[in-house]
Amino acid sequence: MKIADVDLGPMPVSLAPMEDVTDPSFRLICREMGAASVYTEFVSAEALVRDIKSTTRKLAINDAERPVAIQIYGRDPEAMVDAAKIVEQANPDILDINFGCPVKKVASKGAGAGMLRDIPKMLKITRDVVKAVSLPVTVKTRLGWDCENKIITELGLQLQDCGIKALTVHGRTRSQMYTGEADWTLIGELKADPRMQIPVIGNGDITSPEKAKAAFGQYGVDGIMIGRGAIGAPWIFKEVREYIETGSYNPVPDREKFEILRRQIRESIDRIDEYRGILHIRRHLAATPLFKGIPNFRETRIKLLRAETEQELFDLLSYISETFFDSPFLTDGNLPA
Questions:
Q1: Residue 181 phi/psi, 5° resolution?
Q2: Among the options 30, 101, 147, 162, which is catalytic?
Q3: d(CA 83, CA 74)
């Protein structure tokens, strides 16, 4: 699959953009695990134009994580164009427009999925951004605003006409947020439309190699994006890639999973500082499927999410691996009191 001249290979599986998740360290780990491409956290166009440092820092990318896309969002066409030009200077491989974020603070202001209530403005922003930059521009959106307005089969063609090079569709409406099951039916219909000439990428509820391969086979999409299924589990890309290519896969060993979590903790702290780095990484530790199903784990989980130092976290991971997995890999202590 190609997005303009960016070759992602056959049946690519990419890391979706996620706020407070897809930082540079996590993106690089996912690439090393087999993600075909990675996306930054979404970037506010207005904050970028105002040169807000916490926002401009999100533009930092490195060659090791390529191909990488920077995603922007906003509701003002002029600000989106100006932001796109700033992004172009950061030299990503792809510029993605977020028309899918459902959270209230974004959508209620008319940005993200809020743009699904103003299609003329969505199309204007898309056309203007495409004209403003030489980067390949892509869009990520949803099926529609609500169940009565699932417009993606028509909208996809309109966005294509604006000049985008690929379209990613999350199989839920904005009103669904992240509840219920993702519906890929309309994604498949859009892909099957002979008028649709650009790649169609599906997103939503891909949490296993089996689901990934089934989505390719059932809906004929050109690519897949994994979001929440990768939080605390970047190894999913390795397992998915192996399953797609061979029809079977060897699960990543628990020992390696613990080492990956430890690396995430260390690199999060190195990138920010110990206090904020730990706050950032807690989302991954809370979501990781590695700890799901462990009996009598509640007390340990609470300690894990309340730990305040790197050493506490490493001690806890050592305790968990030795107690619940019989897989010792650390040597720096036991469960803190």
A1: -95, 145
A2: 101
A3: 9
Integer-rounded Cα Rg, in Å, for the chain is 20
- What's the CA dihedral at 160, 163, 166, 167 to 10 degrees? -50
Local confidence pLDDT in tens for the 337 residues of the chain: 999 999 999 999 999 999 999 999 999 999 999 999 999 999 999 999 999 999 999 999 999 999 999 999 999 999 999 999 999 999 999 999 999 999 989 998 999 999 999 999 999 999 999 999 999 999 999 999 999 999 999 999 999 999 999 999 999 999 999 998 999 999 999 999 999 999 999 999 999 999 999 999 999 999 999 999 999 999 999 999 999 999 999 999 999 999 999 999 999 999 999 999 999 999 999 999 999 989 889 999 999 999 999 999 999 999 999 988 865 544 333 333 3
Residues 6+ apart with CB under 8 A from 195: 157, 160
Show the tokens assigned to 5: 């001249």
- Report the alpha-carbon angle 6-9-12, nearest 5: 100
Quote the pTM value.
0.93
Neighbours of 308 (CB within 10 A): 11
How far is Cα 327 from Cα 321, in angstroms, rounded to an integer?
A: 5
Spatial separation of the C-alpha atoms in residues 104 and 86, rounded to whole Å: 26
Torsion-angle region of residue 100: left (phi > 0), alpha (psi -120 to 50) or beta? Answer: alpha
CA distance 184 to 192: 12
**Half-sphere exposure of 185 toward its Cβ, with a 13 Å CA cutoff?**
5
What's the Cα-to-Cα distance from 319 to each of 45, 110, 111, 185, 333, rounded to whole Å?
44, 47, 44, 45, 8
Q: Is the separation of the CB atoms in 169 and 142 below 8 Å?
A: yes
State CA 192 to chain mean position distance. 25
Roughly what angle, to the nearest 10 degrees, separates helices 310-324 and 298-306? 160
Identify whether 101 is a catalytic site residue. Answer: yes
| 151 vs 237: CA distance, rounded Å | 31
Output the CA angle 182-187-193, nearest 5 degrees. Answer: 165
